[in-house]
Amino acid sequence: MSDKLSIVILAAGKGSRMKSDKAKVLHLISGKPMLFHIIKASKKISDDISVVVAHQKERVIQEMQRYFDDINFIEQDAVNYPGTGGAVMNISAKHEKILVLNGDMPLITPEALEGFISCDSDIIMSIFNLENPDGYGRVIISDVGVEYIVEQKDASEDELKVTHVNAGIYSFKKSVLERYLPKLSNNNAQKEYYLTDIVALAKADGLSIEPLLVDEERFKGVNSKADLASAEVIMQDKIKEAWMAKGVTMQLPSTIYIQESVNFEGECIIENGVRITGDSHIINSHIKAHSVIEDSVVINSDVGPMGHLRPLSDISDTHIGNFVEVKKSTLKGVKAGHLSYIGDASIDKGSNIGAGTITCNYDGKNKHKTTIGKNVFIGSDTQIVAPCVIEDDVIIAAGTTVSADAVEKGSLAISRTKMVKKENFFYKFFGKK
Ligand code: UD1
Ligand code: CA
């Protein structure tokens, strides 16, 4: 943690290239808003973080306050001073050195920002070299160093050919911002106040400008849905590599999606096509191909293939087989092997849930609970109309609709219409071939 550095994150822009009603910085990567990832990385290196807001400011502030309680929010006068230069005009910073980050760089890491802390120039700016520089500001460099930055929309044909681009992270001495921000003009294609114009102004006065070569993998800017998707791939690789390094087995990891907030412990195997989201916690378990787990706890269990644990499922010592959906239920030591819906239920040790069992938890108005005790055997194709308590050591015969509020310990519940057999009915109906 540097005690000398303030961080300002620019998050006031509309992000029109996202073609979305949602502010750009709130688009999700691995389950969290882009801005969340940047603030999280920033907090590791600074004790003074400000986020500049304007477009959808209430929503942006509210979202971030869910995760952080020690961030300053500063409002940009985006009507009179639009642009990245306008965005820093109202800031106040605790420290003499100010690191400015674009709010659309979700892949940034604290280590990647190291270079901005150690160097002491008036301006340090990030540059990367791209085969296809499309969309970025071009950095014009001469024999004596950085000359100026020109935005794509303002660039001449020759300037467009330049492949050194501005990555969008800078550190400024506070005095540099104070001196040059008032001198910015909006005389450009977008009629905006560009923060990047400070570079040419400072250069003309002989200030020191240090270019820092960075990699696209961590400094990538997200401007479009295609950028969002490729940033997601990079973030996912990072998340999965970290879990594999801690001992999680992943088969075909490129097909697995694990959100930022998911946790693993012990010996876990994750097969291809699995999606695990929210505050899920997986301990010593095997998640088989194409299962989906949302906000759930799985301990010493196996799920899938094609199992679905919806939010607030709590599974331990349990087997969940294919096409079983569980929602907001606690299963301890249970077998539910095939084709079932278990919602708002709790099921205890030794119970077996037959294929096609459905807890009818919703009556059209309210949700109701199903409680199943120990060693209950539930035959296939059973409906349990909730609320219902099935006590220990009960057998529910296949095909039963359990419509009682309770089935007492040790009993059998069976509801079937009597089966009849009609001899030679087939031939009467279809005729003899
Ligand atoms: C900016 C740089 C460009 C660089 C690129 C790197 C400028 C003028 N251009 O361009 O040189 O190559 O980043 O990714 O800085 N924002 C505000 N208020 C505004 C406008 C934008 O806070 O009025 C915020 C946005 O929310 C965003 C960031 O600033 O997080 C960058 O804005 P964006 O419009 O994405 O800039 P680029 O065109 O990508
Ligand atoms: Ca951008």
Quick recap of the structure?
It is built from 10 helices and 37 strands. The protein is of the alpha/beta class. Strand 4, helix 2 and strand 5 (72-75) form a beta-alpha-beta unit.
Give the strand tally: 37
In DSSP terms (H or I, runs of 4 or more residues), the helix count works out at 10
CATH architecture of the largest domain, by name, is Alpha-Beta Complex
Q: What is the CATH level 1 assignment of the largest domain?
A: Alpha Beta
Shape: elongated
Heterogens:
uridine-diphosphate-N-acetylglucosamine, calcium ion
Keywords:
433 residues; alpha/beta; Spore Coat Polysaccharide Biosynthesis Protein SpsA, Chain A; UDP N-Acetylglucosamine Acyltransferase, domain 1; 2 domains; 14-stranded parallel β-sheet; 9-stranded parallel β-sheet; 10 helices; 37 strands; elongated; binds uridine-diphosphate-N-acetylglucosamine; binds calcium ion
Topology, element by element:
Blueprint: E1 5-10, E2 28-29, E3 32-33, H1 34-43, E4 48-53, H2 57-65, E5 72-75, H3 84-87, E6 97-102, H4 114-118, E7 123-129, E8 138-142, E9 145-150, H5 157-160, E10 164-173, H6 174-180, H7 198-204, E11 209-213, H8 216-219, H9 225-245, E12 249-250, E13 257-258, E14 263-265, E15 269-270, E16 275-277, E17 281-283, E18 286-287, E19 292-294, E20 297-299, E21 302-303, E22 308-309, E23 314-316, E24 319-327, E25 330-332, E26 335-343, E27 345-347, E28 352-353, E29 358-360, E30 370-372, E31 377-378, E32 383-385, E33 388-390, E34 395-396, E35 401-402, E36 406-407, E37 412-413, H10 425-430
The structure holds uridine-diphosphate-N-acetylglucosamine (UD1) and calcium ion.
Uridine-diphosphate-N-acetylglucosamine binds at residues 10-13, 24-25, 52, 76, 78, 82-84, 86-87, 102-104, 136-137, 149, 151, 165-168, 194-196, 221, 223.
